[in-house]
User: Which sequence fits this backbone?
């Protein structure tokens, strides 16, 4: 009973940590656009993150005495989730290029609505009344932050890229949870939580190196070389990415993916805090209203 209570609460700080790593990684990834193409900037998160993830899995296996054995269905699920994440990352960076970092990030936050729908359809995990209310409140905050109806125009490519990125990230989130849950097949209880949380992104990142690297080898071979030439900047993205992925995977292992992604929109608050206190940026009433809506959503999601 005590273990269940701890797991029920642990997903909250883990999700906050994941959002923090993601904020830092996304900002660094956008800066890489001065050195790499859209696809190249997306590739570095996998090629530098996977080795760290593999080492973490090996250490966990040595300490824990082994790893859960993946069932057959684990592999196509995690491959699909990895491909969705690649597509989402590329679309997100395109959204940054078309508009800017802030608005591009805002559009991708429609993921919270899409992941709730996908969790219901693919995993049979419906949100409760408060969960759906939190999701809708979050979506309202996204609309307000984006500036209302004026920016939601079908001819705005940032909208299309952002919504597409949100959908792809939603599919990736559901895939990570489904793959992690499949590792429980044939096991009693809810053991190997950390091992499952680390093994899932390690396998996914390795597959992503093959998938995305293969694409670059055929279409943008020069970007493969540049990813290693600029290893100092690129490796930071990889480290932040694997830390974030491990935290997201652990949170998805402990809690419903829709609830995790809803609460994970705390990333917007972190972004505002960094912009205000570190960059000295100031925002208007619309931005603070959106933050208040997101804050209300966090209370509802954690209820």
Assistant:
């Amino acid at each position: 009973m005590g273990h269940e209570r701890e797991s029920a609460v642990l997903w909250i700080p883990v999700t906050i940590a994941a959002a923090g790593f993601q904020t830092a990684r996304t900002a660094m990834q956008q800066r890489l656009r001065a050195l790499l193409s859209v696809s190249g900037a997306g590739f570095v998160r996998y090629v530098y993150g996977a080795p760290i993830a593999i080492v973490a899995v090996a250490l966990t296996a040595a300490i824990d005495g082994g790893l859960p054995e993946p069932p057959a269905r684990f592999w196509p699920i995690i491959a699909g989730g990895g491909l969705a994440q690649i597509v989402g990352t590329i679309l997100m960076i395109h959204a940054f290029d078309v508009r800017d970092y802030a608005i591009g990030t805002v559009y991708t936050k429609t993921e919270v609505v899409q992941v709730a729908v996908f969790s219901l359809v693919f995993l049979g995990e419906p949100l409760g009344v408060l969960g759906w209310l939190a999701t809708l409140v979050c979506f309202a905050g996204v609309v307000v932050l984006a500036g209302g109806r004026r920016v939601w125009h079908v001819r705005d490519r940032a909208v299309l890229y952002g919504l597409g990125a949100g959908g792809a990230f939603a599919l990736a989130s559901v895939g990570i949870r489904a793959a992690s849950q499949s590792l429980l097949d044939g096991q009693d209880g809810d053991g190997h939580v950390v091992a499952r949380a680390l093994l899932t992104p390690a396998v996914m990142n390795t597959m992503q190196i093959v998938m995305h690297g293969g694409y670059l080898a055929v279409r943008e071979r020069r970007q493969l070389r540049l990813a290693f030439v600029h290893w100092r900047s690129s490796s930071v993205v990889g480290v932040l990415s694997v830390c974030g992925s491990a935290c997201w995977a652990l949170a998805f292992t402990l809690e419903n993916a829709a609830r995790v992604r809803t609460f994970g929109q705390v990333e917007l608050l972190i972004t505002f805090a960094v912009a205000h206190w570190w960059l000295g940026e100031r925002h208007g009433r619309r931005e603070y209203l959106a933050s208040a809506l997101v804050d209300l959503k966090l209370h509802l999601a954690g209820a």
In short: The CA atoms of residues 68 and 187 lie 9 Å apart. The mean pLDDT is 78. The chain is about 80% helix and 0% strand.
